[in-house]
Amino acid sequence: MKPKILLMGGWGWSATSPLVYTLQRNAKYAHFGYSKTFRCYGNKKKNDSRITKYNLICDGTWENFEKGKPGTHHMNHTIDLEPLRDFSLDHLHKLVRGGYTLSNYMDFYHALHDHVISKGYKSVGDGCMGRYHRYHTREDAIKFTEALKSEFDVKVLLIARDPVRRAFSHYLCQIAGITHKNKGRAILPHEIKFIDYKKQLREIQSYYGKDNVYVTVMEELWERDGATGLSEFLEHPITNLWKNLYAPDIGHLCKHDDAVPCQGFGQDLLELTSEMYWHYRKKYNHIYEDWKKVFGSLPLHWGEPL
Known about the structure:
This protein is about 45% helix and about 10% strand. By secondary structure, it is of the alpha/beta class. Helix 4 (about 90-95) packs antiparallel against helix 5 (about 100-115). It starts with a strand and ends in an 11-residue tail after the last helix.
């Protein structure tokens, strides 16, 4: 039997962090290693944030580093790193010093999987799947996918949110990155970016197969019994969901919360008024219509202003 790996493929500002926290901290289904987003495959770049994390891990200061800082989702709290106390750093050294090659990626996740399984988890997790496919050629993405499927039982999890509210939250976070002097997050003028769910879903399914890709909806998961389908897909009970500031959605009244420090970042900068919502709702109506074609109907709260 192949070891299991869960890939988180998106989409940002749809409560991806509360979902990952749920899977690792509460459900003890998948452990994602040293951080929610530690890109383990791809060329090493100068000033790469991975090197900073690597250095902090090696010198013993990564645990609780910047804990609760607005805009962060390091997932490096004591509760996250405790299962890795006796996981040899040799695996991380090989991965980083070897230049994040595909071979080293596979070796790292094999070792991490075997370790976390011994701690009671059912799978290993990687929160950067979407980045691997967006920032590499299709040829390289296929090579990555086929190699992964040859050695792992791969499941891909996506989480969606009302397209307008998701895009607006993304926009506010990017603007907050500028006003907060968080260099490199965005350059003005910054546009609201919408995700074509249908297009990206079809692409991901082309890599991993329709049966291995599951889409959960944020509003349904937290405000209805959306965990049933997710539990069936993972073959593991998902019941105790982590705190999510976007459900129920309170828009610009959302404030920073140490439990989910990435979610409140910038959300109070501007109100998404009904007029603004309808403007974008009509402009990007095709995203809603495509969703209905794929899934039959719109999810809870989609297509209407708060």
